[in-house]
Design brief:
Distance between the termini: 20 Å
InterPro entries: Flag_bb_rod_N, Flagellar_basal_body_rod_CS, Flagellar_FlgE/F/G, Flg_bb/hook_C_dom, FlgE/F/G-like, FlgF, LlgE_F_G-like_D1
Number of helices: 2
Number of strands: 21
Family: Belongs to the flagella basal body rod proteins family.
Order of helices and strands: HEEEEEEEEEEEEEEEEEEEEEH
GO cellular component, one term: bacterial-type flagellum basal body, rod
GO biological process, one term: bacterial-type flagellum-dependent swarming motility
Radius of gyration: 27 Å
Number of domains: 2
Pfam families: Flg_bb_rod, Flg_bbr_C, LlgE_F_G_D1
């Protein structure tokens, strides 16, 4: 069989994967804190049909002769550049300007998120839309590792139902005024960063989990240890660029189409070979 047919098949598989990633990016164009995916390819092993030779005997050297055997998927990256901030005017909508992830306590352990649309539960604890606790701390600065139940300097952020003039500072400090008119502190929203944020695994619900290649988190309050600052009343939007995604969709479509032509042409050649006996 022709090598070109198998090369075309490998190309079809790759562009199918590329289209899957582009489709997921477009589906999440309005997902808060979403980081778009990107597919890269690499060539497969090349078959040598002629080896290289050095110069000598009055003649120069010759380059190797190789025929490629197709392509394969190299990586599926998460592009982690900052998304645009959208003003909402809602105090509990919080965006991170810079590096870092919110720390969320779930039933499956600590998860990490860039989306900051927070709420309060019946007891006044700061939670995500799924009811998971947002991890905070009593003091500013570096913190230990979060544990379950919360410890090591970590806590939940509790805002009483009768709190007034609620505000969240750039350093993550949550303050409010009690019924007696006294300014109270509910604690600091804490952030975490990783040696390799690109190594985090997406675990759904806008959250990430630690992987073997992400490293262990370094936790601190915002604006410390290289972490970004918080902006209350705004949300970080997806970093998906629709014009770029539609361009990538066209590239995937044309690449898929070109590889089908390779298979069709290879099939026509094989048909001619079969018909030689006639």
């Amino acid at each position: 069989m022709l090598r070109s047919m198998y090369s075309g098949i490998s190309g079809l598989k790759n562009f199918q994967t590329k289209l899957d990633v582009v489709g997921n990016n477009i589906a999440n164009v309005n997902t808060f804190g979403y980081k778009k995916g990107r597919v890269t390819f690499k060539d497969l092993v090349s078959q040598s049909v002629g080896s290289a030779s050095g110069n000598g005997g009055g003649v120069g050297g010759a380059n190797p002769k190789q025929v490629g055997l197709g392509a394969s998927m190299a990586t599926v990256d998460s592009v982690s550049n900052q998304g645009a901030l959208q003003n909402t005017g809602r105090t509990l909508d919080v965006a991170i300007s810079g590096e870092g992830f919110f720390q969320i306590q779930t039933a499956d352990g600590i998860r990490y998120a860039r989306s900051g649309n927070f709420y309060t539960d019946l007891d006044g604890n700061l939670v995500t839309g799924d009811g998971n606790y947002v991890i905070g701390s009593d003091n500013a600065g570096p913190l230990g590792q979060p544990t379950i139940p919360l410890g090591g300097g970590y806590k939940t952020i509790n805002i009483p139902a009768n709190a007034q003039n609620l505000s969240i500072g750039k350093d993550g400090l949550v303050t409010y005024v009690d019924p007696a008119g006294t300014l109270q502190q509910a604690g600091y929203i804490s952030l975490a960063n990783f040696p390799n944020p690109g190594g985090l695994e997406k675990s759904g619900s806008n959250m990430y989990s630690i992987s073997q290649n992400s490293g262990q988190p370094t936790s601190a309050t915002p604006s410390t240890n290289g972490l970004g600052q918080l902006t209350s009343g705004t949300l970080e939007m997806s970093n998906v660029d629709l014009s770029e995604e539609f361009t990538e969709m066209i590239i995937a479509q044309r690449g898929f189409q070109a590889n089908t032509r390779i298979i069709t042409t290879s099939d026509q050649i094989l048909e001619e070979l079969v018909n030689l006996k006639r």
